[in-house]
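Aim 2, interim progress. The first record below pairs a target sequence with its structure tokens.
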Amino acid sequence: MNTNSRRIYFAYKKARRKFSLKVYILLAIWLIIALIQWLVVCLIQDIRDVFRKHYYVCIVTFILSILLFSLFLFYERLRYNGAVALVISFIIVELQIISLFTLVSRTHYAELLLYFVICVVLLSLFLIIGSCLPRKMDLTLHIALLFIFAFLFLLVAVFFLMLQLLVSEVWRDINNYSYILIQIPISITMLLFVMYHAQTISGGRFAEMRLHDYCLGSLILFHDFLIIYWLTFYWQLVSGVLTPKDWTPLTTLWDRNDRKQLPVDYSDDSDDILSNTVYRDKEPKITPVTLDESRFGITQDFNDDKGTESLNDPNWKVNWLAQERRYKHGKRPKKAITTKEHQQRLRP
């Protein structure tokens, strides 16, 4: 290598290191801004109540951020001017931060910090691994293989997602941790793309980012972090490792003292809403029904036929009407359902 070529090479390496430094500094700024605002929402009750009630604001900001980010990706002229690119990048990041307020308002600040640190450590670790991989393991050259892995992990995630949504036995058989089967494939896919993006940023590979796209590089890494961090909110709200049991926003979603998780019983044709919900009281609270014979026109013959035990049952009216219909069609009446049997049917 002659002197001129060596000078060009070192100038390129210097420019590439400067570019990487800008990307990672911007990423650190975005993460710090996000953490500060999320902690403010967690710690101030009034702000938390606003975003818990007006969740649609977060949906609107998320859609706007995606549209603006798409424009920023496809129109390169927006990225040529450094000042304009910085302003647009800040707006995109701020919209994404606000879009997460509806989830942040439902979690405890200790859970928020714990999973935030875990995701930052994972992101930093795989950025270092991706940058230090030898040239033989150039992910930018073997991008097709990376997309094949992403496709396979997507198949796994979607399959277990449908099982979790539609097959209630999955929750019971693996102790309510079926969400891991969705989170792990998606997280691995995103961490592989983090390594790919790290190589495009560090340069010296088959494909690399342009030196003026430092804002784009920071936005891509920030969205990689967001996808991994979004998936942790399930554990923040449901598991609550560091959340106090008496913390109100958690008990509205998952009451660990008075409620338990039960499978949905689709065979129940009753009009009771609680009997067809995923979360019900441990013991169904049945309010005794006051017997009013004049209101429903119950005769003494009916009282003598059914006895006092059936009349004291809360479901006596439903049983009586059903048996009356069977009498009209000439069918033999079935045995009245007692309170104990009714409770057993509600239980899993």
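The second target in this work package is listed in the same format:
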Amino acid sequence: MILDELRNRTTVVDIKNHPYIVSIQKEMIHSCCGTIISSSWIMTTSRCLTQPGSDVQLVDTTKIAVVAGQSQLGLGKMQLRRAKNLFLHNRFVKKMLLNDIGMINLYEPFELNDYVNVVLLASSISKPYKFFSSCYVISWTVYRKDFLSFDKLRAEDEKTKKLFKVPELQQIDLPTITYEECCDRIEAKDFITRNQICTEYGTLKNISCPADAGSPLICGERQYGIFSWGIGCEDDDYPGVFTKVSSFRKWINNIEMDPNVYIFRNKGVLGIRLKHSIIILVEMFIFIMK
């Protein structure tokens, strides 16, 4: 019944209707989703930017590419940009996926047009998401068995094309639920905070799968959430959990305005204020010289 309802809520959409969504690729294979918040900046999850395993280790930036402008991944015109720097939230907790938000700074900005453009972000003064009758998630239908490389998708051989399913951009209407209801249904209150948004359902085969991390939750015309996690990859009976964008607007703005104030390392502290560290070192030097 739930799967039937979700199928009725799902429609194939054109990238022109959602030009802000991008495919974040690791070694040219779709890994997760993100959104364009300015021509040089992509917003996604911290989970997307870290290597597999319990340790918080950044992915090698040379292996990350961001693809925009395609309704079907690997087919048609696209814009491809390389990652320059990766930014994780300084309070990201990987084991619990708390503060699961990250950003990518691109080497070259996207050329904005009808197929590639920025998303409007929710803020503290935006209409609360709970006032919308329904929100929706945008994602490609990438199943775990169908992680595809562009080389295979571009192949002219008809036999090769039949072996792989081309991921299509889809919109799934999902009503949101309260914090209390989300905690009750997931039965893991420690994993849910007020900095997250939950939707009534989490999956339609793909919406709780790793490739959907970073997918935007759109309410009205603004992005209110970033898909973070769900229970299982095909279990439609649990809510989907999204990072609440409005809770992190200050952090987003700080990174955009001056990314050099943050430095990162693969282990230990994820973010420190570089400027503050320099000031402390200068003060120590002056003290020693006295």
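The mean pLDDT is 78. This observation will shape the mutagenesis plan for the next reporting period.
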